[in-house]
From TrEMBL:
The keyword Hydrolase does not apply. This is Isocitrate lyase. GO terms for molecular function: lyase activity. It catalyses: D-threo-isocitrate = glyoxylate + succinate. InterPro entries: Isocitrate_lyase (IPR006254), Pyrv/PenolPyrv_kinase-like_dom (IPR015813), Pyrv_kinase-like_dom_sf (IPR040442). The lineage of its organism: Bacteria, Pseudomonadati, Bacteroidota, Flavobacteriia, Flavobacteriales. It comes from the Bacteria. Pfam families: ICL. Gene3D superfamilies: Phosphoenolpyruvate-binding domains (3.20.20.60). Keywords: Lyase.
Length: 82
């Protein structure tokens, strides 16, 4: 129940911030995420957090390295967090 309320409150606040400030509202959310990394927050790197690299590797194994649809190669996350 707490997760439901936390998720919906956060999304509502993000929608309001985006309505009032545009991308700056979203940027403020990201700044809070970056600050939380010191306390163990890992979802900033969202693709890695959900296991995208693992599934890319499986796809490359199955296709013998010829997969054209892997997500992490040339992703903004890979470029941003090297």
């Amino acid at each position: 129940m707490a997760g439901f309320h936390a998720l919906n409150t956060a999304m509502f606040e993000l929608a309001l911030a985006y309505k009032e400030k545009g991308m700056a509202g979203y940027s403020e959310l990201q700044e809070r995420e970056f600050a939380l990394q010191k306390q163990g927050f890992r979802a900033v790197k969202h693709q890695s957090f959900v296991g995208t690299g693992y599934f890319d590797e499986i796809q490359n194994i199955v296709t013998n390295g010829s997969a054209a649809t892997v997500a992490m190669r040339d992703s903004t996350e890979t470029a941003q967090f090297h």
